[in-house]
Protein 1
Amino acid sequence: MNKPLRHVALVVSVLFLMLFGSTTYIQVIQADSLNQDSRNSRTMYREFGRDRGPIVVAGSAIADSTATDDSYGYQREYADGPMYAPVTGYYSVVYGFSGLEKSLNETLSGEADSLFYQRISDIVSGRPPSGATVELTIDPAAQQAAWDGLQGHRGAAVALDPETGAILAMVSTPSYDPNQLASHDRTSVRAAWESLSDDPSRPLTNRAIGGDLYPPGSTFKLIVAAAALQSGRYTKDSVIPGPGTYQLPSSSAVMNNHSGGGKDPCGPGDQSSLQDALRQSCNTSFALLGTDLGEEAIQDTAAEYGFGASMSIPMRVTPSRIGTDLDGAQLATTSIGQYEDRVTPLQMAMVAASFDNDGAVMEPQLVSSVRTSDLTEVDALTPHRRSQPLSASNAAQMRDMMVATVQDGTGKAARIDGAEVGGKTGTAEWGEGRAAHAWFVGYANKGDRKVAVAVIVEEGGYGSEAAAPIARDIMEAVVSP
């Protein structure tokens, strides 16, 4: 071969190797990133062309896929969309997905590892690929009660099964209709998104597990009381100080004994039992109690309940938190649920649930089971104990104190005939010139039926008036169906 031909052959070989290398790089190395690129229309059409699995509550689909005659193939439809939106999230050809649609995307689309054998079976049988059915732990009656109670308010509610951690209700208001975002009409979807994004009431935020979080107000006194019992230095009958006012350490500020500026002492001689202090929700009693226990004890108890820890239900939950490196005044205000205390309603429902479960905190879970298209169960809820902040005997003392609060204290509006109901109200100050947030955190049991709840009504004022009646209706839906 002469020299010019050798040069041509060399150039052709180099070009061939470059072509082979670039093709290999694109098909192997870049495959995942190209498939996930939002500009890749093939990926989008393949994604929306699947028969996505339904999300089911008590045998009825609250999210399902319907075949369409457009280029997408299927469209997501939501039953009772606004009521379940904080659970399902949305599935949009323009804005992607949120909620369970996002966190369980591989399961719903049929791509999860647990569905490998179903995919093989679909290929062999010639069936079109389909996603798995996700059955939720939600109790539809409890969900409806929470939704009805929060209408006209900004707020959230969570209900749990204390023994399993199953989430029985999760509502956030105001909400939105995910059907508007699931439409294949891109113009209308963008218009709906802009309207929701510009709404100052933040309907896209799931207040039950995220957002800006809330000061817990007096509901945090449950954690301080639990820390006191676990210290071994206190019982529910221990006498503690409760003056009408308390000069905060190293501060010019004076704490009043009750919200609204009340200056009455908690009992005769400026003293009361721990149970009476909780029943009356005495600020000075718990400020002094928290100061006596110390920051470390309160931090440790809060951490046992999950404060500061990551959590997935399987949606991500924003960790609750309290301040650190506290001076005397900060520790006192922290102990009554103010200063830098910030919580989710889910976190406070977990606190209440522990008292009705012998002191054990169960991992909250939203998924009951996952089934393939032929109804084979590939995953099921397994109760998992997260921690044990309280002994069983101390949990019993907490129940006694909370029952007294409902029977003859600030939580009377939560009483249910024939059921044991314990709870704690909260009035959480959060902004100058703003009405306080209203809380109720508690539990109910009747026979073998149990439920724990947390309800917050933003700027609702007193928890005894705004939140307790909603909590009662949710609990009653579970224990007295």
Protein 2
Amino acid sequence: MIAAHAMSEGRMTQPGAGEHLGRALWIDLFEPSEEEERQVEALLSIDLPTREEMEEIELSSRLYSDGGAAFMTAIIPAQVHGDAPEMLPVTFVLAEGRLVSIRYHDPSAFRIVTGRLEKGPFPHLCAEDVLVMLLEAVVDREADVLERAGREIDAISRRIFRRHGAKPTQPGEFQTTLEEIGRKGDLVSNIRDSLASLDRLSVYLSQVVALRGAGKGVREQVKTLSRDIRSISDHADSLSQKITFLLDATLGMINIEQNAIIKIFSVAAVVFLPPTLIASIYGMNFEHMPELGWPLGYPAALGLMIVSAVLPYLYFQRRGWL
């Protein structure tokens, strides 16, 4: 689908495709067909990258110039309300004073910028301005995602380091916590990858606008965008480190609980070992065992077994092992 956006009285409108495509400032290709790609290629005399080419990870395949047009590809998330955003590449092309965007998913930043441009007014808008607005909207959305993830990670941290006197850990709670930490780790990792691609794109874009002699306002906007991306990347790195710490802490808590359970079995084994030894001695069927003929032999054996079990238990309590 082609969405062609043109400027009219300081506001952006959609004149449509076909014969109106020539006066569009921003051409948005959403899951384009081969025919739609050919229309844009014929209009701008360029070769648009295929979906497979957009997914290549080499820097030379994502940021390059060809025939006077600048091609820039970044990983942009969509459906960011959950922990599994849709991460796909989006290519931006600056050619002949126009911006062409090629995408195969629907990031909310495109709808936000479209609505903003339709309200206007923007009397001196150029293709570079539209691109910077799109990138700023993407970065804003990713910052919101990291803020939400940060709050949820803090909640997980409070649950892990529960204060003394709180209710005991329920069965399966640590497994749930590990799953939540894993989802947050994947989310932050995806956002970090996107920010890394946007950082490289902003550096390349600053070179493009400088070579094309863009206005000072555009160059300043690109510099501000780069600073914002790096600032948010630092925050993402901090969250990633906290997630690693929480993962290690959760595994440590699991080990502590397992050790406590093993300690209980170990104490029980030591407590019952002396009575078992006494019972084993008097369970031997030797002919000459004086206690067998003693009237108080049975109560004495039982008492000896009880005392031999209580003494280790009291000793463990005194040493603080229980």
Protein 3
Amino acid sequence: MTFSSPALNATAARVQVMTAAARAAQAVTDTEQPPESRLQTLMDAHARVLAVRGPGNPLTFSDFRDLLTQDLSLLLPSHIAAEELQGVCLITEDGQYDDDLYDLEQEQMLVLRALAKAVRGGRTPSGESLAEEMDQERAYTALKKRGEQAVYVQGRQALIDMPAGSDKDLRKLRIPSSVVDFYQPIAHAALFDRWWFACPVCRWPMKITIQRGRGTKTGSARCFHRPHAAMGASYIFGIPDGGRPPSLMPAASAPPRPSGAAAVLFTDVSGRVPEPTPAEDHKALTRGVWRWTTIPGLVEVGLHRALEARGIKVDLWPALDAYDLHVELPAMSFRIDVKDYSNPLLLGKKIQADEGDAGGAQWLVVPDFRPSSVPVLTTVCAEFGLRVATAGAMGQMICEKAGIAWQ
């Protein structure tokens, strides 16, 4: 793949190294996979990394294998800046693949797509992976097909309110059949025997892990979205006998409710222990739709509902999703776009590639659990006239302008 932009070249190199190394790390840690299959995956990944490094930066297969447990930036050639890969480790201290890195891979691809479009005048190359639409984009296209605002809002909100459920309940959702196809059987990674557990924050199936010790086995269930796990969506369980479902116990005390503006939208999961649900006749959204529709949608809908409850006029996804929220006050309005990236540097790069917000948003809002991203994004967004705030701070600001209380 040849690119005409240095920034695009460097981003593409980091994406290829991240993708190849991630597949290799998964193969290394997947002891249930046949040895010959694992070796083939490692060899393919090694070849892909060598292609990025070039003849002037050799790397033996043995060194490649060893570096999978170290800082991922060490796999890059010296002329490519590490940026978002700096300090990233694919394999945890207990020898498990770090599944949270799914977010970083997806964010890299979104930036790569945006850069490719900018270089090619809005076009991505057909026939290449960059041109393949991501699940959530295809879902949005299907929801927009009728061109009716109410239909779009109703359908998108359904994907946020019910990311998983029984076939009976899913049939009641008023969404196009092409969107229903994004509900798939519960993934193996979220199953214990024939049971799954819904995250108390987002209601999507949680990741199940079995730890084996000296003659003992214990299990854990935690949300695939790390911030939700940090809110308390993380549990342990003993292995039951005779095919019975396990009973979850909180892995740690849930964090206290935050103070200040962030308290309003905070989800308190203390005392909420998920019950086992049979996998039969149940489905869940594909991971892409869940991650890029349900997860940020919780903030979008949460802010919408909180402002409406305070008597403020708010529209969700106006003009078929030009941006996420339009707030109308007597003397001013707010056009808001919500983004939830795990890596603020990558979000900043996407904003630069897009030259701001294509839909005309004035504000970029991030979840309250990502306050550290605000300074970085503020610097980037200032060039394009975008202002940045956390969701709670945004709600408080709007309420202050309206002369009412947020908290």
